[in-house]
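Q: I'm writing up a methods section and want to include an example of the input and output format. Could you take the sequence below and give the corresponding predicted structure tokens, formatted cleanly so I can copy it straight into the document?
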Amino acid sequence: MSEQMNVVKAGIIGLGRLGSRHARHLVEKIQGIDLIAACALDDEQLKWAHNDLGVANTYKDYKEMIDKEDIDAIFIVAPTPFHPEMTIYAMNAGLNVFCEKPLGLDFDEVNKMADVINQHPKQIFQSGFMRRYDESYRYAKKLVDEGRIGKIIYMRGYGIDPISGMESFTKFATEADSGGIFVDMNIHDVDLIRWFTKQEPVQAYGLTSNIAAPELEKIGEFETGVAQLKMDGGVIATLIGGRHAAHGNQVELEIMGSDGWLRVGEHPDLNRVTVFSENGVTKPSLQSFGERFDNAFTDEVQDFVYNVKRGTQPEVTVEDGIKALKIAKACQESANSGQLVNIKL
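A: Here is the clean output for your methods example:
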């Protein structure tokens, strides 16, 4: 796209928990974009987009929306298995695409998706690894790159949802394939480990359990997953995914260096308030990923809009998304088989 584009006209596919957040951001916070169309299967979601956000046109068929609307970009926030086909259709229609992570679940489909993306080098494709845009992670990355903690020895990434989200997840996983706990919960941690270390994993060993939520076994899901990664430069990393944090949303990254440690999100404080009451001395905790990463979601989408206007590709590439998916799936394969899995990227 040329630098002369003043306003990027956009459509969005998916208005669920994350899609509705993106849609509201596009209307209320993002500069240089006009959300003129939305697609979802739920009538109430479409009514909300039209009445509350002022989205002019709503659809239940994403192809119809892409074919009819005069738009420059599409935001894909639909269930993961549909990401490849939607991206392929949008790219072939000449649109710029922002696609939420993961890229997909089936590698053949994801590879076809990547081929089509690479066939359209002038169109912008960006995947939703928003943690790279979070100011705390960016500050930690700066410290690491400056050598402030020496050489990275070990990394540990937590991604644990609050108990309150169990009902919503169970409904989602009953209706669609989540990809398993490592793909669904830890793919961001996988991306961060690659980003911080500049190394690639060569082996994975994963374990899972349903001690805290045995009901998930009926739908082939696990409540807790732990995986060890061996990186090609010697770094060891641990991934921990879960859905049963009693206190709220725990998203944490630890980086152990030869000359110091960093921890991002060690305490999931909602704000800087400390409450002194009959319950003792307490601090309110974050209760959702949305509360924790609201600014990061906004910044990544704003970056996408800038990239579309300038015709520049983002830092996060489709290859980053493919590698993160392969690594997360290798962790799940190891957990399913009980065997150490070699990773070939």
